[in-house]
């Protein structure tokens, strides 16, 4: 939808959040205290995109739209990965897992659509896979898979109708 490269650079929140993350990650790897966290939290407050400074993210990574994206501190993301708004890459065990790999691994050439959640440190989404929107993934997905919901049902009620 962008009319120019300049529009993408200056107005896409995903690009800004990734830019801040890249700098914060370098500082994180050099064991600079607190500053990487402050940087990513400031980007989060301005974009709605929360990327842990310790996450390992490959080349050609893109977040489209972005609001509500969460990428946990021990997440590993390969090259050519695209995420949409509301995607959560997080843990299944919370703080009790501090100090261990507790967030998922997303291999190369994966697309994860809106509001999908991929959880757990042992969970791997294989290369070339597509994860549909609103899915909840808690176990590994083989390469070149398509993950989707089955038997979704939409119910529409008119004003005044009862169940």
Sum this structure up briefly.
Helices cover 23% and strands 18% of the residues.
Short key terms for the protein model shown above:
alpha/beta, five-stranded parallel beta sheet, 3 helices, 14 strands
What is the radius of gyration computed over CA atoms, rounded to a whole number of angstroms?
17 Å
Low-confidence stretches: none
Distance between the termini: 41 Å
What's the main sheet like? Answer: 5 strands, parallel
Residue-averaged pLDDT = 92
Strand order of the main beta sheet, please?
1-4-7-10-13
Task: Determine the strand fraction and express it as a percent band.
Answer: 15-25%
Number of helices: 3
Class from helix and strand fractions? alpha/beta
Helix content: 10-25%
Write the element-wise H/E pattern from the N-terminal end onward.
Answer: HHHEEEEEEEEEEEEEE
Assign an overall shape: globular
- What is the strand tally? 14
Walk me through what this model shows.
With 163 residues, the chain is of the alpha/beta class. The protein has three helices and 14 strands. The strands form three sheets. Strands 1-4-7-10-13 form a five-stranded parallel beta sheet. Helix 2 (13-29) runs antiparallel to helix 3 (35-47). It is globular. It starts with a helix and ends in a 16-residue tail after the last strand.
């Amino acid at each position: 939808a962008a009319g120019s490269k300049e529009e993408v650079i200056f107005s896409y929140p995903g690009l800004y959040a990734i830019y801040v993350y890249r700098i914060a990650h370098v500082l994180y790897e050099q064991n600079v205290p607190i500053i990487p966290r402050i940087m990513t939290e400031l980007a989060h407050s301005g974009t709605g995109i929360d990327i842990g400074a310790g996450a390992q993210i490959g080349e050609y990574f893109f977040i489209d739209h972005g609001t509500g994206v969460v990428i946990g501190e021990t997440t590993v993301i390969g090259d050519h990965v695209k995420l949409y708004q509301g995607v959560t890459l997080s843990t299944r065990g919370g703080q009790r897992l501090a100090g261990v790999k507790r967030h998922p691994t997303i291999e190369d050439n994966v697309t994860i659509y809106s509001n999908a959640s991929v959880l757990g440190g042992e969970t791997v989404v294989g290369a070339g896979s597509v994860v549909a929107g609103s899915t909840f993934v808690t176990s590994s997905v083989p390469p070149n898979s398509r993950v989707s919901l089955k038997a979704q049902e939409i119910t529409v009620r008119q004003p005044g109708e009862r169940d």
